[in-house]
């Protein structure tokens, strides 16, 4: 991307398409294939070649893309970037149908640490993966996305709750089931029949006989957009952390082919990362072992490699400035943020932060730091998990953001572009990744 405007325009398109982790991975795979990356299957033999570009998908929701360097092979160090594909949301329960006073609603479960109040009075759609049986008896899966507003969670009017602006809380069991439609007297809705109709509409060749199960989440239909009087801000759902997935992908697509590079985007970070496709699972380690070729090569690879864990940071909110340490309040559009925590909730150390500062200075990109207030708890990322699972030196960094875990988050229009520039330089950096 030649400038921030082009970068943000394409980022908005990506965010609009990537409504679930499954759709995000499918879109990333499409872009990788268009750039010459070849898909690999985990249950097949791999024949990796210098200069080769590859990607592998697990569970349809996690993806690893990598390139084998022509000048520096994997055992000489892999330049890795990590992010995650999932975001807090409302996921549909297995037996979701609810009918009350002629209204049809769906029971939902809260995925991750979602801010629930912003989900009220939004135009919601539904997307995800569906498992079904074909007419011939075969089991298949397919992605669906209604793409239009099919539901909403109406607020209770202030006239019926006069203390709403003082003390209203949200009960996730009874207050947030989305409303889909009205039903006639005696009429009943079958959610699986609705899904079957949607599958036939989106995949007419599937010969769907019976919907068996699904992983579906609601999302806000309002598209990602550049906003603000001077166009300073990017507003969208799922900035945490599809913004980092996109940023890492754009940097990878500008790889010069010389050093060995890798991008991993894991699912399930928002719920702890412990899954077959999560950062605390075996996926990355398994891929790195196959890239290295043998145990000795793997040991050399991990010792000489580095991971940059990219996940959004908390920008200092002008209305809540006291929630930050006075010397560590990152500003939007003032540069990506190095995240530091002495209790290892972030994995940055002086060596990895030094490397990033050197790369950023060479690119002319400003750098900020975030440390949580000493009297507050600290969040975490895939950084410490990856460092612990793989044993690779790691840096935690992110774009400063407002409204993290809301249905609509806010970032600056310069920061992701600048982070992508530094990650591109990192991927193309010819020297050793460890201090001498």
TrEMBL record:
This is M18 family aminopeptidase. The keyword Protease applies. InterPro entries: Peptidase_M18, Peptidase_M18_dom2. It is an enzyme of class 3 (hydrolase). Its cofactor is Zn(2+). It holds the Pfam family Peptidase_M18. PANTHER family: ASPARTYL AMINOPEPTIDASE. GO terms for cellular component: cytoplasm. One of its GO terms (molecular function) is aminopeptidase activity. The keyword Metal-binding applies. One of its GO terms (biological process) is proteolysis. Its EC number is 3.4.11.-. Keywords: Aminopeptidase, Hydrolase, Metal-binding, Metalloprotease, Protease, Zinc. It comes from the Bacteria. It comes from Halioglobus maricola. Belongs to the peptidase M18 family.
